[in-house]
Amino acid sequence: MSQELKIDSNECKLLFADPIQSESAGILLRSRLQASGRRMGFSDVRRENMVLVASEMVTNLIKHAGGKGMIQVWQQPGPALDIISFDFGPGVDDLALAQQDGYSTSKTLGKGLGSMQRLSDEFGIYTQQEKDAKHGRWHGTALWTRFYLNKHNSAGSAGLNMPAVAQSGFEIGVFSRALNDDRFNGDKIYLQQHGAKLRLLHLDGLGHGEIAQRVTSNLGCYLSVEGLDKLLAAVDHHLTTGERGAVAIAAEFDLSKKNLNVLGVGDMSAYVYIHDSINNLSFAPGILGREHKTPTATQLVFEKKTLFITASDGIRRGWDKDSFPRLFNQHPQLIAYVLGNVMPRVTDDQSICVIRLN
């Protein structure tokens, strides 16, 4: 297990997000992938694999969703490059059958799924049929593929050198998108691991834009403060001299004790998915750096299948596990992408962090 892991949501960058309505739309996508992969340091072979995956996604969107969808390319901590296909089609009837090589009908995604999975380092698929879409919110299919820059295979299937994120003992998903895809984002997620303990600080600066980003920048240093109450007190003190306040959630996972401690101030959301149910956590009202009530810690047993989700108020509430059947068994990164794309408020920055024991 890695003894130290640091993640800053500044590393989470949306590089491409366009609707795909025809094969010609894939030309810009492939060009952007080549340029982004080259800039990040991926080899020619790895970039070609990305292009092949993207081409399969374009074909699937047109053939099975009638061009009602989009493809996103994200740079993520790791470093890693993610390619996401998100459509508004009918969904897949039999997902297990659809993933078999050689199987293709007008109601499935066909044999391309197997090749996408083999070409990428991580792969996930989530589908919801129209008849299962609660409140008519969303139906379709989301495909996630990931390419790690630092993963190499030196001897067949042996000799894998995975990045710190993949060795941390946790599965982590991060989604952070600025309002109107502005260059400035007032939402910030910091993660830091030392040994068996993983710390999270998720902040939302009031408002949005450049000032909100300045408010929440450079606060990751407080993750080293002993005690979550003292951590939030230090952030509170820091923000008293700032231009705006912020709301925040602080959490600590202890692998040795199998517990989770959570503390928060302000209008943010946190959910714990355990034993097939989702529980919402509430936090002290107020604003850090301004006025707020004293926060009270919540301690939970953190079992292997427990899922912890935090979100800024840029993500709409009012969803539960029945809104997204089987989603919360998926990889945290795919969960973050689905919630971020289906549940955003179009008036604020949006951010989600999803954590599960690996």
From TrEMBL:
Coiled coil: none annotated. It comes from the Bacteria. Pfam families: HATPase_c_2 (PF13581). Residues 29-128 form the Histidine kinase/HSP90-like ATPase domain. This is Anti-sigma regulatory factor (Ser/Thr protein kinase). The lineage of its organism: Bacteria, Pseudomonadati, Pseudomonadota, Betaproteobacteria, Nitrosomonadales.
